[in-house]
Design a protein that fits this description.
- It is a single chain.
- The protein is of the alpha/beta class and 385 residues long.
- The chain has two domains: 142 residues, Aspartate Aminotransferase, domain 1 (Alpha-Beta Complex), CATH 3.90.1150; 237 residues, Type I PLP-dependent aspartate aminotransferase-like (Major domain) (Aspartate Aminotransferase, domain 2, 3-Layer(aba) Sandwich), CATH 3.40.640.10.
- The protein contains 13 helices and 15 strands.
- Helix 9 links the parallel strand 7 and strand 8.
- It starts with a helix and ends with a helix.
- Bound molecules: pyridoxal-5'-phosphate.
């Protein structure tokens, strides 16, 4: 901890444990303690740690060719772009690769300027990243306020409210951006007709509809992309987190006519679509398909939703697939997170009374059962203090 404080800038504060190895959904710290990893690198390690397919493809790629830049083509980049295109169900979709969620949303914001308009509608409490453009889209005052002035023309409205969206989306709107389910805000699920309504309002006004699927993409919700239940398609999908299965990789996918907005010279990235990161992503997609992980996500997610709701002190459980948020009856989320860690499970507290869990998508039912026992015990112990 002393070394951390001396050498690293504070971002989430000083960590209390140091992780050194992992296998599947179990990680080990420097003292040899093991933990069930129910945060999975903040929803990134969709196949868990050291998945053989990722180890194999990454090892093979780094031993063959490391980085080529976007001046040259590489088979992995081509294959991954075609694969993502297929998953969106739009043959005309085109992909821009970058390295993170913030960069994917920066790309979407720049793309929207190519409509000739600049006004943007985003939602309060949404998280879209920390760089200046992405932060301007983010709707959390605590993250925004120290860095004002941010980009002009971006309006934040309450999440899930179709009536207010209908009012604020006009012919001057360049783009509307929402998370299909707000992740960092504590796993907030909108009314079932919300995304469909947004599609309508954007169509009526010629605005781009952007779904930030950085957290809800790549199978997290039991679908490839977190919006699929709505039956509509956005104009732009942003991805990162799970895409690289633990390696840094982001993507901004533009569908339909939006795919033609960027022309050569408009945008770029040195590392985006790196052969090694894309090798990992190809392994992620093929493992999700081969191991039938999407239906597994539904099954384990359903089990956790049901079991966690029965624990005394838990007042609400919500989410989709393996992105689950809980509300507690007291502001003990930080203490509970620490207690779970002591008892051998890693979780996250996005708020004083809010818990988020996002395990690897291939977490076993047995591990989910063990997690429920640990969580339940931790709840009992923190409720007594
Ligand atoms: C994490 C996250 C981001 C930012 O991704 P980074 O890789 O940290 O830049 C953007 N949007 C959503 C929905 C996220 O969950």
């Amino acid at each position: 901890m002393k070394r951390w404080q001396k050498a690293l800038q504070d971002n989430y504060g000083t960590p209390t444990i140091e992780l050194v190895s992992g296998k599947g959904s179990v990680v080990k710290d420097a003292n040899g303690n093991t933990y069930l990893d129910f945060l999975a690198g903040i929803a990134t390690n969709v196949l868990g740690h050291a998945h053989p397919a990722i180890v194999k493809s990454v090892t093979k790629q780094i031993s063959t060719l490391g980085h080529v830049s976007n001046f040259y083509a590489h088979p992995n980049v081509l294959e991954l772009a075609e694969k993502l295109q297929k998953l969106t169900g739009d043959k005309g979709a085109r992909v821009f690769f970058c390295n993170s969620g913030a960069e994917a949303n920066e790309a979407a914001l720049k793309l929207s300027r190519k409509t000739g308009k600049y006004k943007v509608v985003a939602t309060q409490e949404a998280f879209h990243g920390r760089t200046m453009g992405a932060l301007s889209l983010t709707g959390q005052p605590s993250k925004r306020n120290p860095f004002k002035p941010l980009i002009k023309g971006i309006k934040h409205v309450p999440f899930g409210d179709s009536a207010v969206m209908k009012r604020v989306i006009t012919k001057k709107t360049a783009m509307v951006i929402v998370e299909p389910i707000m992740g960092e805000a504590g796993v907030i699920v909108p009314p079932s007709d919300y995304l469909k309504n947004l599609r309508q309002y954007c169509d009526d006004n010629g605005a781009l509809l952007v779904f930030d699927c950085v957290q809800t993409g790549m199978g997290r919700t039991g679908d490839w992309f977190g919006y699929e239940y709505s039956g509509i398609k956005p104009d732009v999908i942003t991805l990162a987190k799970g895409l690289g299965g633990g390696l840094p990789l982001g993507a901004m996918i533009a569908l339909g006519s939006a795919s033609k907005l960027f022309v050569a010279g408009d945008h770029g990235s040195t590392f985006g679509g790196n052969p090694v990161a894309t090798a990992a992503a190809l392994s992620v997609i093929s493992a999700i398909e081969k191991e039938k992980i999407l239906s597994h996500v539904d099954e384990v997610g359903e089990y956790l939703l049901t079991e966690l709701a029965l624990i005394p002190g838990v007042t609400e459980v919500r989410g989709a697939g393996l992105l689950i948020g809980l509300t507690l009856n007291a502001p003990v989320a930080k203490a509970l997170t620490k207690k779970c860690q002591d008892l051998g499970a890693l979780i996250n507290a996005p708020g004083d009374s809010t818990i988020r869990i996002a395990p690897a998508l291939n977490v076993s039912m047995k591990q989910a059962q063990k997690f429920v026992v640990i969580f339940s015990q931790a709840m009992k112990e923190v409720s007594h203090v």
